[in-house]
Design brief:
By secondary structure, the chain is of the alpha/beta class. The protein has 8 helices and 18 strands. A hairpin with a 2-residue loop joins strand 15 and strand 16. The termini are far apart.
Length: 399
């Protein structure tokens, strides 16, 4: 039995049991994206849906669709794959104006329907392979249409979301009956964002929603995305696997600051003299890293326009590829000073013809890429310039 067949069977059994109980959830006064009342936003995240065509994915008993039609004047199509869940909705709400209840697969329905103005799924999209549902939603929504997804993030057992696009077993709970096993794509937020981006959506926000009193380990994530405008056909790209690449390189920056008193250097606790700089953090540009490290290590403030990247230095240390980007900072505010909890301090200005002995090798490499005539010995590094007029290769310097 396929994963989605397992899920269809589970939700069909669930609906059958709820029909036997004659249970119909009340029409909510406010859109609820989590099992907990009052947690998270309401229907405003869908935008103005008055008179708009809205798709409810995995609509269950149909109570959310009825709320949007009655309270906000939307024209809602409530699509449900489980025949018993569909029966629950139709038997109670079939006559509600503004709501159409459809039984079937959401991808197949979207392929035959006119594009929708908005779509949402409350806990349901995780039961469908995202490589099948997301391209169908892209093609079935108008450009600019919002897509709002409430998804499981951390389950009842406190298990974290998966870093891979694979389903795992989760239980559908019933009050008086045994739980039903199902298969869900419980994915990390970044993975959902990557998938949505790959299939033509822009993710606007991801919020993690928790029970207000912390009485359960369950965490829901609410993703607000928007279908990107149509664009000319382009060749797509995607990673060959969801696994991150094996780490094999260290990436850092170093900043050259020169005043009328000389070059700014600090002393590391291990007794090397260094330029301001450090490791590039995830999501940073090289310029951003230079500005942040300069502020954190020296207290000096610079702007992006004050930073000119020199180029990339590449060498190899202890089995690790080291990539260092040098930068020339030509303007800043403040006076350099030792900062709390930093490994480099005692900042001072050194004339270029009186540089101290014992420069940190990365700082030495940056300085000779900036001024090749400086009399500094260091390990060799390959240099690729960013700025016009900088040498294309820094030859090995004798130690």
């Amino acid at each position: 039995m396929s994963v989605e067949d397992i899920n269809t069977h589970a939700w069909t059994t669930y609906g059958k049991r709820q029909l036997a109980r004659a249970y119909t959830p009340p029409i909510p006064q406010r859109m609820a994206w989590t099992p907990w009342e009052g947690v998270g936003p309401g229907s405003e995240v869908l935008g103005d849906i008055t008179g708009r065509r809205v798709l409810d994915i995995g609509s269950g008993a149909g109570h959310h669709a009825v709320h949007l039609a009655q309270a906000h004047g939307a024209h809602v199509t409530a699509i449900e794959l489980s025949p018993t869940q569909h029966e629950r909705a139709v038997s109670t709400h079939a006559a509600v104006p503004g709501v159409e209840f459809a039984h079937g697969d959401v991808a197949e329905h979207l392929a035959a329907a006119e594009p929708f103005d908005a779509a949402y799924a409350i806990g349901t999209l995780a039961f469908i392979d995202p490589h099948r549902s997301l391209p169908a939603l892209r093609d079935g929504l108008r450009p600019g249409a919002p897509l709002i997804l409430s998804l499981l993030h951390t389950d009842l057992h406190g298990r974290e979301p998966s870093p891979e696009v694979t389903p795992r077993e989760q239980m559908i709970l019933l009050r008086d009956d045994p739980p039903l096993p199902a298969q869900m794509w419980v994915l990390a937020s970044q993975l959902w964002e990557d998938l949505l981006t790959e299939y033509g959506f822009r993710v606007e926000s991801i919020d993690l929603l928790r029970h207000p009193d912390g009485s359960t380990p369950v965490v829901q994530q609410l993703i607000r995305a928007r279908r990107l405008p149509n664009r000319p056909v382009r060749v797509s790209s995607r990673p060959r696997t969801a696994k991150p690449p094996v780490a094999h390189a260290a990436v850092g920056v170093g900043a050259v600051l020169v005043s009328e008193r000389g070059l700014l250097l600090g002393r590391h606790r291990r007794h090397t003299f260094e330029l301001p700089g450090g490791t590039v953090e995830a999501g940073e540009s090289f310029e951003d890293a230079v500005i942040r490290e300069l502020r954190e290590e020296t207290g000096l403030i610079a702007r992006p326009d004050d930073v000119r990247l020199l180029g990339t230095l590449v060498d190899h240390v202890g089995g690790v590829l080291r990539v260092t980007v040098g930068a020339l900072v030509h303007a800043w505010q403040g006076q350099p000073a030792t900062q709390p909890n930093e490994t480099v301090g005692d900042w001072a200005w050194y004339p270029l013809d009186q540089l101290p002995d014992g420069l940190f090798v990365c700082s030495a490499q940056i300085l000779t890429s900036w001024q090749p005539d400086l009399p500094i010995d260091h390990a060799p590094a390959h240099f690729t310039p960013f700025a016009y007029g900088t040498p294309h290769f820094m030859p090995p310097v004798a130690q």
